[in-house]
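During the reporting period the student researcher (J.K.) took over the structure-prediction task from the postdoctoral fellow and processed the backlog of single-chain submissions. One of the processed entries is reproduced below for the supervisory committee.
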Amino acid sequence: MSPWPEPFYAHGTYVSVVPLLDSHEADLSEAAADGDLHQLWYTTIPKPEDVGAEIQRRLGLREAGSMLPFAVIERASDRAVGMTTYMNIDAANRRLEIGSTWYRRSVQRTPLNTECKLLLLQHAFENLNCIAVEFRTHFLNTQSRRAIERLGAKPDGILRAHMIMDNGTVRDTAVYSIIAAEWPTVKANLTWQLEKPR
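J.K. obtained the following structure tokens:
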């Protein structure tokens, strides 16, 4: 029996979310080089030369049943521009986290992230019948925290001294969630954000 949830594909106007494959390595290595994202000390983005190993790590976690990794495909170019996952999967309680997400710098602050999250949330609540979806980020990653809040997620709290980062610093983790009862309102707001005039 394969781990829950089953792999799936989701397609929007700006983005497609597809199961992560080894064949995405070249695009994702180029994406990781766009803006030297690996230099951000408060998040974990692979160096371009380490993208292959990161793909293997995520696929290994899939085999263990704790992650379902995706490549994020920009529809305009038909190229992988980032990664995201369902992670910290709790099948018994129908809960999961959307996380380990990063995008090349050139697509940040575009409709791509909003639509990607809409597609993942829609599948979680409408197909998987999740009771809650979490988001977590470094307390000091204000860009990520604002993006999570714009999705409509509400703060659950701060996990103090939650994990040790690669550079040896200790991360406080900001935890957010959207619960099933909130999904219709969140969906309406995300849809409006994508459809409003720019």
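The committee noted the following: The two ends are 46 Å apart (CA to CA).
J.K. will present the remaining backlog at the next meeting.
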